[in-house]
Amino acid sequence: MSSLITKLLVRPRTYRFLLQQRFYAANAGSRENIEKLVQSDKVVVFMKGVPTQPMCGFSNAVVQILRMHGVDSYSSHNVLEDEDLRQGIKEYSEWPTIPQIFFNGEFIGGCDIMLQMHQNGDLVEELEKLGIRSALLDAPQEETKS
Amino acid sequence: MLQVTKTISQASLWRQVRLIKGVVIRHVTMATDRPVETSIRQKLTKTFEPVHLDVINESSMHNVPRGSETHFKVVVISERFDKESLIKRHRLVNDTLKEELEGPVHALSIQAKTPAQWSQNASVSKSPPCLGGMAHEQAQKNQGR
């Protein structure tokens, strides 16, 4: 009710802008939009918060793992900013939790899977397939032992 | 069990009633106190027939009210995971707990291994500390977003 009154009181141009924002936001969770997002970069992460300030321990773990491997440039999307995106990504990948990691548009998994791949060396291989050389390969031998 | 029944039978009648009531109520409330945990345990046991199963409520590690059942870690050791990829194993567990995940369960950490892998390495990764995400979400909800 109060939002209706607010809309009536604001100027028409502002109202149209707000309406477009809502429409754009509603599109954020659509399959087409998410498909575009996951294909937009080699490494795409849907997380809570942003890489410089994660808002969830599991999301932070993923950010730290990528950092350890020297992957600093990747696309990340904050699901806390957009409820439609949050719901849309869960439906798209048929995966119920956040964070979600995509390599070349393919869903890889969440925090647990990233952690296990990091521990058993699979992550270094997967990054190599993307054409990314893991920083751990250049690190002194002791550091690469998990 | 025999000791318990012997103790109970030796006590006076009123004490017997109180003792039995205490035991029964404790067992009944243990299950109904934690309905989500109980449901998770039952479903995982039924689907995977695990040789080892741990269902750990980690909600206390996060910014949620006391007694919540929102964040869980499950350790499932089962032959059912043999030859399955990591992601397939997790999807199997997610599908089994679909109802809980669409309902109260907000986060689920999964360790899914075969008995052979478990005997080689029985360690379970520790879940990372909360960074306040749930408090942030609660604040957003209160703002009516």
Task: Describe this protein's structure.
Chain A: InterPro entries: Glutaredoxin, GRX_PICOT-like, Monothiol_GRX-rel, Thioredoxin-like_sf. Chain A: One of its GO terms (molecular function) is metal ion binding. The complex is a heterodimer of chains A (146) and B (145). With 146 residues, chain A is α+β, with helices and mostly antiparallel strands. Chain A has one domain: Glutaredoxin (3-Layer(aba) Sandwich), CATH 3.40.30. Chain A has helices spanning 2-9, 12-27, 31-39, 57-68, 83-93, 111-120, 122-129, 141-144, and strands at residues 43-47, 49-50, 53-54, 75-78, 100-103, 106-109. A four-stranded mixed beta sheet of chain A has the order 4-1-5-6. A two-stranded antiparallel sheet of chain A has the order 2-3. In chain A, a hairpin with a 2-residue loop joins strand 5 (100-103) and strand 6. Chain A starts with a helix and ends with a helix. The model of chain A has no long low-confidence stretch (mean pLDDT 86). Chain B has 145 residues and is an alpha+beta fold. Chain B is built from seven helices and three strands, in the order H-H-H-E-E-H-H-E-H-H. Chain B has helices at residues 2-10, 13-33, 35-48, 86-96, 98-102, 115-120, 133-142; strands spanning 52-57, 71-77, 107-113. Chain B has a three-stranded mixed beta sheet. The model of chain B has no long low-confidence stretch (mean pLDDT 84).
Q: Which descriptors apply to this entry?
A:
heterodimer; A: 146 residues; alpha+beta; Glutaredoxin; 4-stranded mixed sheet; two-stranded antiparallel ribbon; 8 helices; 14% strand; elongated; B: 145 residues; 3-stranded mixed sheet; extended
